[in-house]
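Re: Re: token formats

Sure, here are both.
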Amino acid sequence: MTRHNVYGVGNALVDIEYEISEETLADLAVDKSLMTLIEEPRHHELLAKLEGLSANRCGGGSAANTMVAAAQLGSTAFYSCKVANDETGRFFVDDLAHNGVDTNLDNDRLEDGITGKCIILITPDAERSMNTFLGITREIGVAALDESAIRDAEHLYIEGYLVPEVDARAAAVRAAEIARAAGVPIALTLSDVNMVKFFGDGLREIIGDGLDMVFANEEEAREMFGLGRGTSSLSDTVEAMKGIAKRFAITRSEKGAVLFDGQDLIEIEAEPVTPVNANGAGDVYAGTFLHGLTHGMSFAGCGALAGACATTLVTRTGARLDGETTRSIGKRYGA
């Protein structure tokens, strides 16, 4: 069996991206800049209202984007997830294969159902408002895990979007248990402020006695510790984060990022750019950072590499960079 640099588990989704105006977003009654879980009727309602607008379909899902970013730099990556035996599901499986990511999925053994989709609405300020119909991915459970692959991995990566569904959260908890028993470092992304706000207990269940690495943006990190509703400083958030993670990265958009390597705080500045789309930036950041961690880069070097890749992504459309661009950035940073 291949020893994977990173093993990820998350919700498999196919993204449908639209660039729209602020007025259209308001007319659709969508919460701006957040991820909202929706049911199938609402999914079809939104698609009907967006009919006639140009759409971009691409493989998605937070942890899937992260695994693809790591693989683009040469990491061996494995992704556990669930899709249905429909055209969208087969599209997703083929997309993983095309990007060199191993998976538990097999086109010949997919279950009947509807593959999850995410309607992503991008406004002129580059903010993305996500409306996620989970479909069959809400049924992901421990059966989707490859226990031997987790034990042999260098890092386990869990996306916070798994916490709303009982079976999905159980899969995340079980994956963490397997990794801890095998001495495999565990990384978690908090994913979205709504996951922290409404499902904080589920995230804490995954965190357990502590994690090796946490990825979060500043808003998510503040909310995790009840600091988002006060006037706390960044230093308060940093100190609170030390209580759940040995190491972490807190991204701050145009302000760069603050890293903690277990001993020292490291500030990484962001290159000034004009953003057009923030979709997937956190995913690409985590994937390229994890590649650096598993390939001997310094913690600061990982942050610089990840920041450059995420900054490049926000100047383009889509939730992923193309492989050539990612590798070109990697070469500049010695990845």
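Second one below.
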Amino acid sequence: MKQKTIKNPVTLSGIGLHTGKSVRMTIKPAGDNEGISFIRVDLPSKQKIQITASNAVMDEKVTRCTAVEAQGVRVYTIEHLMAALNGLGIDNVTVEIDTEEIPGMDGSSLEFVKALEKAGIAEQQADKDVFVIQEPIVVANKTSTIVMVPHDQLNISYTLDYDHPLLRSQFFSRSVDLASFTKELASARTFCLESEAAEIKAHGLAKGANYQNTLVMSPKGPVENTLRFPDECARHKVLDIVGDLFLLGYPVKGAVYATKSGHALNRALVKKIEAQRQKYTTVPYPAAAPGTTGRVFNINEIMKILPHRYPFLFVDRVIEIEPGKKGIGIKNVTINDGFFQGHFPQKPVMPGVVMIEAMAQTAGVVVLTSGAHNGKVALFMSISDVKFRKVVYPGDQLLMEVEIVRDRERTAHVKGVARVDGEVAIEADMMFSYTEAHYLNS
């Protein structure tokens, strides 16, 4: 997939939902890999705020909207615009704004979607930078939770549960793509309970809110308004998640299961996603040695070869493959690895059996990419001559060299050596047997 921007600038005007200030905002095209940025044109500094996880405002006082900040300058209530950009697949734009809050429009993403579609969407040269969740993530606060797990697309399920006759156990779930976003999410409006409206205003918020841009939910339904969907409130919560996830600055794939969550928990999820991305993509891997193919298998490709999944996938990357003969695998050892919870809480060290398993998984990638064993899986048969020579701690990088000594139709003999900083940590001889991949589904 290629990155996208808009073809022409587009200007919107309105009132900020919380500040009540008049605002004029112009969205302009941006180049490949420039991302989403806001520029406060009302300030002498013309401060630019780039959308990244590190620029998301985590202040607990910012509860009913999402904000970003750079050099002490903020832009508030960006979630509905961000949802429109994310939902339409737009990666690169510059947003010039003449005050600190995005216009509220009708309280949804609908007007932003219409404006961006009118401006025209253009495909660019650079590939999209999409991160696929690799390990389950959990964030929670009292009775609110969000769980995100690996999935091949963005899917969001939300359970709404208010002490309100119309909002008890409201549930909505969708795979988020262009069609579902524009038809089923973009027009879902923000809401509050009639019983909490006065308190919200007492805290200096919702100065620009009215019955047209905010669903004020009474026991009988929205005050002076009608619902666009029977479950519009749950849909709006999903819309907020779509917008808040784009605080990452890149699209993400995974399945989200949220219960009674809001912007604060969404932002906590964003921080954990970024931490996971850093774990999997920013480690300085060694270059391939001269004479090797230089073929690198990243985590997504490894998962297509091996049947292992979290929490039992122990190789992050395989490099220097000579198919069917040898290769080097990499395991980045972090304190987030689940086995450290019990091995040992007071002095975390990597278990020897896990080191062996990591080497075996590296060997599995090497033997199964030779072309001779298509449609097979390699199962551990035996292990011998095991020697543990160095303790491995969180923060170490385990380089696992495997060499195929003998590869037959039904079995393979592999020698493995794993090192940390050039020092041998473990060595072993391993035997594998091949079986049909459908064995795992029987």
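Residues 282-292 have pLDDT under 50 and may be disordered. The first strand starts at residue 2 and ends at 6.
- S.
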